[in-house]
């Protein structure tokens, strides 16, 4: 039987129209789904409430991070949550265990880079955090004349990032106080200590006061120097204070020396305020660094500029 050609044409046109409309509907759905997906995604800033997890107020890195927020336009609306180093480490470990985003204030030497091997510094295009730093020893004026052997040992003190981080990590891992670990380190490293004490004469109970910040890195250096001084017969006191007081104490002669001046960036303001009132003995450690740190699984965040404004 011969089919009606008009009916066949109508059927074909109808089928094409259905297919066309279906295709249009499918494209529209895809676009809507894409828009919904885009709308539902969040940037890192939103996920962490535009908060950088920091340490104690007044710490050099805390002050510098406040400057970074002012300098980087994309950090507009961000804040630094300042509490303590221990609290920062706790939050960092929690985030890493859950593979969640986090931005923290970080520095070397510090044992967190030994404990967590998946951390990275964010690039700092504007150079707010500076380049590689030194940790310097400072002495009060008159120390060389009044206590020449203490002055000589402090002036000769020099060690590495690995030395300092080793003490810090061992203390954290074992639960032992840094003073205990530092004393053992001095006993286990006689060759290095011999370099510091070369030409230093024994004394009988001469008192020396070292001033330092209360953070693990500075506690490590203060305690190893204290132990080396004790081996030569000195009676040593370590006084932990905040950064501003540390510089002021050495400048005013209230403390004999410190091994905790981070330069040329971290403590630059404090150094400038008192530079004419103390003796700069030079670097006791090279290779220090500060900056913003994130876990490596935050693959798309490699620079401070990758963080989005609020």
Automatic annotation (TrEMBL):
Residues 43-187, 207-309 form the ABC-type glycine betaine transport system substrate-binding domain. Transmembrane segments: none annotated. The keyword Cell membrane applies. Residues 1-23 form the signal peptide. It is found in: Cell membrane. Its main location: membrane. Keywords: Cell membrane, Membrane, Signal, Transport. GO terms for molecular function: amine transmembrane transporter activity; carnitine transmembrane transporter activity. InterPro entries: ABC_Gly_betaine_transp_sub-bd. GO terms for biological process: choline transport; glycine betaine transport. One of its GO terms (cellular component) is ATP-binding cassette (ABC) transporter complex. It holds the Pfam family OpuAC. This is Glycine betaine/carnitine transport binding protein GbuC. It comes from Oceanobacillus picturae. The lineage of its organism: Bacteria, Bacillati, Bacillota, Bacilli, Bacillales.
């Amino acid at each position: 039987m011969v089919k009606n050609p008009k009916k066949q044409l109508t059927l074909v046109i109808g089928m094409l129209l259905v297919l066309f409309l279906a295709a249009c509907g499918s494209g529209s759905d895809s676009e809507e789904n894409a828009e919904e997906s885009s709308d539902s995604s969040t940037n890192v800033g939103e996920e962490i409430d535009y908060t950088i997890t920091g340490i104690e107020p007044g710490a050099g890195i805390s002050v510098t991070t406040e400057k970074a927020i002012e300098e980087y336009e994309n950090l507009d609306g961000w804040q630094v949550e300042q509490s303590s180093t221990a609290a920062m480490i706790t939050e960092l470990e929690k985030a890493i265990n859950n593979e969640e985003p986090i931005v923290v204030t970080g520095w070397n030497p510090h044992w967190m880079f030994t404990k967590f091997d998946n951390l990275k510094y964010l690039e700092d295009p504007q150079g707010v955090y500076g380049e590689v730093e030194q940790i310097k020893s400072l002495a009060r004026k008159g120390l060389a004349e009044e206590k020449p052997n203490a002055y000589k040992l402090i002036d000769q003190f020099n060690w590495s990032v690995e030395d300092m981080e080793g003490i810090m990590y061992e203390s954290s891992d074992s639960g032992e106080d840094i003073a205990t670990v530092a004393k053992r380190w001095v006993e286990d490293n006689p060759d290095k200590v011999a370099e510091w004490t070369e030409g230093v004469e024994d004394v009988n109970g001469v008192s020396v006061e070292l001033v330092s910040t209360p953070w693990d890195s500075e506690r490590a250096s203060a305690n190893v120097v204290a132990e080396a001084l004790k081996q030569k017969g000195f009676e040593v006191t370590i006084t932990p204070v905040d950064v501003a007081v540390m510089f002021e104490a050495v400048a005013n002669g209230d403390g004999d020396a410190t091994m905790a001046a981070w330069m040329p960036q971290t403590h630059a303001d404090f150094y400038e305020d008192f530079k004419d009132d103390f003796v700069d003995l030079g670097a006791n450690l090279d290779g220090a660094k500060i900056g913003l740190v994130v876990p490596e699984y935050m693959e798309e965040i490699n620079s401070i500029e990758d963080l989005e404004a609020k």
